[in-house]
Amino acid sequence: MHEKLKIKIKSLAAEAQMIHHQERKMHGPKWGTSTVRYELRSHRLIALRPDARVAQLAYGFLRGRSYGDLETNARSQPNWEEAGRLVSKFAEPHDASEERLDLRVVLQQFAAWRDGAHDVIVANTKRYHEEQPDRAARNALRRANHKSRTLSDWLDICDRANAGLD
User: Fold this and answer.
1) Given phi > 0 = left and psi -120 to 50 = alpha, else beta, which region is 78?
2) pLDDT tens sequence across 88-145
3) Are 44 and 23 in contact (CB under 8 A)?
């Protein structure tokens, strides 16, 4: 019933692996300050990773898994709209021998599952900040420093890395 969603998950994973392999090949002085490697990395992390996460969540829901079993330490909300779209797309039986599912019931069950997942994510975030308050502050400072860098700063970092200074 969920074979097509499973294939989608595997194809996303294979695409991420291929991109990562290409990134590794584009390392060193030969590439200089080429932005292709960073564009590939950005696509892998910003586009593919959330899609893979959402597909895994939809697959887990359709297989009857609890959210806590799927993601034990998540602190960010996934794209629930996309997850709901995948659930509605792949919840329909594709075989004539299977009984007809009421899509409204499945989506109501998914909404309840999503609400429970929201509570888990909030609890994980709270626990993260309570257990390691200095780590959260360091990460916030690191993100602020990261965003304040200019393109010339990044090019200097690339030059130093390619020259073996970092």
Assistant:
1) beta
2) 888 876 545 455 567 888 889 999 999 999 889 988 888 877 877 677 677 777 777 7
3) yes
* Own/partner pairs, 143-149, CB within 8 angstroms, 24+ separation: none
Give me the residue spans of the domains in the chain: 3-131
The first and second tokens of residue 43, run together, are 């696509």
Give the mean pLDDT of 83-92.
Answer: 89
Q: What is the pLDDT of residues 48-81, one digit of tens each?
A: 999 999 999 999 999 999 998 999 888 889 999 9
Q: How long a stretch of residues is the chain?
A: 166
Instruction: Kindly list the distances between the CA atom of residue 96 and the CA atoms of 1, 11, 28, 86, 100, in Å, as whole numbers in the listed order.
Output: 11, 26, 55, 21, 9
87 CB-near residues (< 8 Å, 6+ apart): 58, 61, 62, 106, 107, 110
Task: Look up residue 99 and give its DSSP letter.
Answer: P
